[in-house]
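RESIDUES AND SHAPES:
===
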Amino acid sequence: MRLSIITINYNNKDGLQKTIDSVVSQTWRDFEWIVIDGGSTDGSKELIEQYQQHFAYWCSEPDKGVYNAMNKGVSHVHGDYVNFMNSGDIFHDSEVLETIFGKELYGDILIGQVKCMGKDWIVNQFPQKDFVVDWQRVNEGFCHQGTFTKLELLKAHPFDESLKIVADWKFWCQTIIWDNKSIQNLGFIVADYDLNGISADPQNDEIHGMERELVIKSLFPPIILKEIQAYQTLRNTSYVLNMSYLERNSHYVFVFLRKLISFFFRISSK
């Protein structure tokens, strides 16, 4: 089995129906599907029961939040790659999975583009077929609806359940920066993102910022943190002054930083 899809839901029956319709319409079927419901009271459980023949595992019970539910889902999967398609999110069309898994796949993390529902925004856009992710892109994060991550990485770095919003961003820092894992750019729209999710709510911006600051301080030694902050300042300056040289060459700087960070963590772990 090459793919596991995890859908988490809590009191979002209408969104869950959209996600179910999207997944069951896929022309490529070599996947298992896990549904984790947080004990919904809006009819979601009954909807899950209606479609339970499509699920390898499902449950409807209280949990400790989004990331607890995501970790619970990971504990039940067996695929090579894992995709989180949560309630309200959908694959962009019925042939998305067939297109992806008809390719030669070699990345630890596969990243496709994601369209924001009701908007013209498309995120996870990268110009190159294969690319090195610089700090700016890690800082922006990646929409999990458009990513397919090797199961071993999710088991090595479970989502930090003490965080409300940025545990998936912490995961990207751990896998891409700490572990130097490879990324394969799929280069087309994979999913449509429901903007009603918790991370998209402007009211959570303050919590989002506070949690990011905690993650950065917890992950990076002061000497490395200082260099990353200096690099970020330079890159921001490059946009203001149109310093295209820095933009063209920033990925080389980040490769060096990634290797330096990995070296420090190897030393500190001995």
Summary: The radius of gyration is 19 Å. Confidence is low (pLDDT under 50) at residues 239-248.
